Amino acid sequence: MSKIQLTNACFDYIDNGKTFTALRGLNLSVAEGEFVSVIGSSGCGKSTILNILSGILSLSGGEYLIDKSPVNGPGKNRGMVFQHYSLFPWMTSRRNVSFGIRQVHENMNSKDVEETARLYLQKVGLRGFENKYPFQLSGGMQQRVAIARTLAMEPEILLMDEPFGAIDAKNKIILQDILLELLRNEKQKKTIVFVTHDVDEAILMSDRILFMHNKMIDEEIPVGLPRPRLREEIIKHDVYRKLREKIMSLFFRDVMENIGGNEVVI
């Protein structure tokens, strides 16, 4: 059964009096509990999809359903993790996470809110950093706080817009492993739409990879590797090599088409 369904989805926007198309006739179906990565060249509409799924943007045309019900804006059933941390700089790590919890659990008492915040900070490896402010944390640690806040809100759907794109290589690996471990241990399996530019990351994390081209989903690529996945093992797998070659060939095609052209980034 589809948890998320976009049918003939279109999104246009106006800039300096001109109309530009960010999505056109896009169809997307994500099953409950599925981890789907969206990948493609800059300007293909990846982030636009997430902004529509989150409710930040509304479709210009087409239909958006969650559990077969129309969606017309943001909702507590969806949580978003952005590339650039999005923490409140005047709040400690614990208060940042507590703030998120209070948005969805309005009747939870203060003691339970604080305990839940501490628990999720521990889950992302930040025991002892509960009272640190964002400026006292590295970029990777700030992103851990953002992930803890979103997971503590217990959304059914997790939307992630290049969450590790601004992190150095070492911390990127750590954060990928933390996220996979957290999701494996969640009581209820989450439905995830994950935007990335990183081919290896998409293969490691996903059940299915969607490659975008010309504002549409051009290819759907099942990953098919068994879980749990260890990066040092899957890179030896013939399936991994073939997946990587296929996706890189799609990127190469895009590069060749765009040489000398203009891209609109949204």
Query: From the helix content, strand content and strand pairing, which structural class follows?
Result: alpha/beta
Helical coverage, percent range: 25-40%
Mean pLDDT: 88
- How far is it from the N-terminal to the C-terminal residue, by CA? 31 Å
Biggest sheet, open or closed, and with what strands and sense?
6 strands, mixed
The number of helical elements comes to 8
Instruction: List the helices and strands in order.
Output: EEEHEEEHHHEHEHEEHH
What spatial order of strands do you see in the largest sheet?
6-7-8-3-9-10
Low-confidence stretches: none
User: In angstroms, what is the radius of gyration?
Assistant: 19 Å
Q: How many beta-strand runs?
A: 10
Q: How large is the share of residues in beta strands?
A: 25-35%
- Give the overall silhouette: globular
Short synopsis of the structure:
The chain is 37% helix and 26% strand.
Topology:
Elements: E1 2-15, E2 18-31, E3 35-40, H1 46-54, E4 61-66, E5 69-70, E6 78-81, H2 93-104, H3 110-123, H4 139-152, E7 157-161, H5 169-185, E8 191-195, H6 199-205, E9 208-213, E10 216-222, H7 231-234, H8 238-258
Parallel strand pairs: 3-8, 3-9, 6-7, 7-8
Antiparallel strand pairs: 1-2, 1-4, 4-5, 9-10
Helix pairs in contact: 2-3, 2-4, 3-4, 4-5
Structure in words:
With 266 residues, the protein is of the alpha/beta class. It is 37% helix and 26% strand. It has eight helices and ten strands. The chain has helices spanning 46-54, 93-104, 110-123, 139-152, 169-185, 199-205, 231-234, 238-258, and strands at residues 2-15, 18-31, 35-40, 61-66, 69-70, 78-81, 157-161, 191-195, 208-213, 216-222. The strands form two sheets. A six-stranded mixed sheet has the order 6-7-8-3-9-10, with helices on both faces. It has a four-stranded antiparallel sheet with strand order 2-1-4-5, with helices on one face. The longest helix is centred in the last third of the chain and has 21 residues, at 238-258.
